[in-house]
Amino acid sequence: CSAVRSVGVLMPSPPSRLTSSKAAAYSGLSIAGGADAVGYFPNRWSGDIGQEITRTNREIKALTQALLSPVVNASSDATAVRVSARTLNGALYVIAVNTSDTTVQARITVDGIGLAGRSASVLGSGNAVGSDDTGFSDSFGPLAARVYVVPPQGW
Length: 155
Fold this sequence. Notes:
The chain is of the alpha+beta class. Helix content is 21%, strand content 34%.
């Protein structure tokens, strides 16, 4: 049984300034920063923000085993893009979040990625990104949060 080691908390001040895109970005930043779970205060949200939190929670729940797995060194050449990576059963899970209000192009490097013909795919969309033996590059819209999956060798 794995235990939650750290929690990110979404508590905007004032709450009226929170948008659905910020809710997704803040939750993603918590995870990219190393949190294994996200808490929300207040615990009830309505409208677009509530729907985004529900969607984000589903995604985090689906990634629980990967988020509790060993951390792999990962970095971005763009200071606005925060990155973390985990490995589970030979697959790599890379979480990347653009912290800025502008579009950013970033090169993401992950130790031991050794793609050798494997592609990094965006979880949920299935879009593959160009990659090589050290990492990949992608363009991030304002406050964009993504999870990339690199399958194990032989998949």
